[in-house]
Amino acid sequence: MLPLPSEAASDLAALRRTRPLTHCLTGSPARMFIANALLAAGASSAMVASEEEVAAFAAAARAVLVNLGSVTPPLARAMHAAVAAARAAGTPWVLDPAAIGAALPTRTALATALLAAGPAIVKGNASEILTLSGGEGGGSGPDATASVAAALPAAEALARRTGAVVVVTGPVDALTDGQETRDVPGGDALMPLVTGTGCALGGLMAALLGAGVPPWRAAQTGCAAFADAGAAAARHAAGPGSFAPAFLDRLYALGR
Amino acid sequence: MLPLPSEAASDLAALRRTRPLTHCLTGSPARMFIANALLAAGASSAMVASEEEVAAFAAAARAVLVNLGSVTPPLARAMHAAVAAARAAGTPWVLDPAAIGAALPTRTALATALLAAGPAIVKGNASEILTLSGGEGGGSGPDATASVAAALPAAEALARRTGAVVVVTGPVDALTDGQETRDVPGGDALMPLVTGTGCALGGLMAALLGAGVPPWRAAQTGCAAFADAGAAAARHAAGPGSFAPAFLDRLYALGR
Amino acid sequence: MLPLPSEAASDLAALRRTRPLTHCLTGSPARMFIANALLAAGASSAMVASEEEVAAFAAAARAVLVNLGSVTPPLARAMHAAVAAARAAGTPWVLDPAAIGAALPTRTALATALLAAGPAIVKGNASEILTLSGGEGGGSGPDATASVAAALPAAEALARRTGAVVVVTGPVDALTDGQETRDVPGGDALMPLVTGTGCALGGLMAALLGAGVPPWRAAQTGCAAFADAGAAAARHAAGPGSFAPAFLDRLYALGR
Hints:
8-stranded mixed β-sheet; homotrimer
């Protein structure tokens, strides 16, 4: 395990001090895990999912996560309303284009449309980032079939085109703003065996933005915190079942 | 930890003997935790959420929980149908006005409308109870920004006006029927770091009503059981991740 | 605990080798547990739930689970589209008629209609199988009120009529193809106290079908794996809370 960098510890301290209300929009089966990870890290989350509630709620939220897992048409409408309100209010938001690819053309089109509202961070696996950048991602479903390295040029182009920090998750995560690209190693092979770890990472990045951390640092600290907590949890886990609560415990303990 | 009062142990024994089918309507990300808490405590739950199914199902359920977490318009319609059917059948129900407040005016109006169908128990945090009683709750999202003490006059007025037992949750829970007001101490600071503990408490109160326990006792026993299980679980937990399964274990073991 | 039969170990090895993408359609509160169980066992799952996405996605999925837990009208439409696409593509699918019975006539009609699209396996508790076979199941909600033995004639008739392997879950599971009927003992009394264990069993059967295992063996291996992992987990669990992660750990370790 890498020790948590001091700048990540400082960002987490800011998160705990401000406890930003993070508005999460997702149909993911892991909504509960996302909420618990945000609580463990020190943020607060709300999963307002109704189109009619979203615009009014935007003023209360300090950051927004839009995760396309198990999205439905009403939820897609709520997402459009939420990012429009976030853009109008200057509230930072994270786009997680979960499972986009050739097998889900409607969702791919939704991700592309949402991109126009200017996310601060885009986080996906290699297949999702390749798809979102306009290439052939090769994914089908939640898992990447391409490598992080293969997706890096697409990630860099996407970052330059949109102004977002783009994160490509995998055995080693990579982040880029289109100029600089950095790896964040760590984590554990058990992490992808717990549904929602990737979704929760996007949520933590949003919460960090809500605490006032700039996009590059929010992306980097999110990856570092998950890598650190994941590696520590794996040392105490007998499998993916016991890994999940151990991971939340470590996320809670990080830097305290 | 306070030992579980003997009357609470007796109520839990009634719950386990009758195993009441408790109909839970909520969009909360913690639906799985609510269901697991009810199973651990000794009840059975069903999460029928379709408007067309709700009325027919009402005859089978012994109690109903209406929790406004992540409510959507179709779910709101199902809630209206469920409480109307419950009222017609004399089935007791619990209202949990989750996250109502100035940031969610539509949800606040929904809670107010549902109140007219006569819940046996209303359970919320201080901000939610202040909002429901017609005041300014100050909440935004799932967390209270007001103290339990500050919400007590509103809770008492709400109880007198509606005939419901009103529970204000917080570090020390308070319940009132408008005449008498009582505190239930206990629990642990880790509890609010596990999403759905409050929702599950409302579910347990509904299940106790379904077992034939009167509203005041159902509210008090629910709070006492959660306080007791929470305090016991915290002694075995390394953080919020390990707290959640330990809490369900203790809820299962309570009074057995 | 029975040791895992060698044919079950061989089927799980095939599952891990092929890692079949299993499309799960359900509104169950336990969606996260289903996904985690599939990941632990060695499969991959996707919970695409939008009618417009389902048909395109069918080509990517190797198997489909249709579980009627907490179904809503839009989800029911997605289920119809998914089984039609599965049938057209020759993709095997599992029907779990969760909670059908007299209290939920709309859901019972949905299960009957879906049956016409030819599931490879139908898995339910005794009340659900009795209801689906056209009898009086006596269930109300998620729990069976009839015994496995009482449902066996109905299960056998249903298997002969539909060509599906029919599984009746209970303290001892039974499976039948209408000619041969077999018991699979094992498991533990804590299993029904964790919401979604039955749903996850249907998911594992679907994943095994997706790995190329024939229906009878997929049903038998699914039951044997859950019986084995459940019995092993119970020896390490203090209650239903700690049982759930221990169960996932054991499912992950099975036969490795």
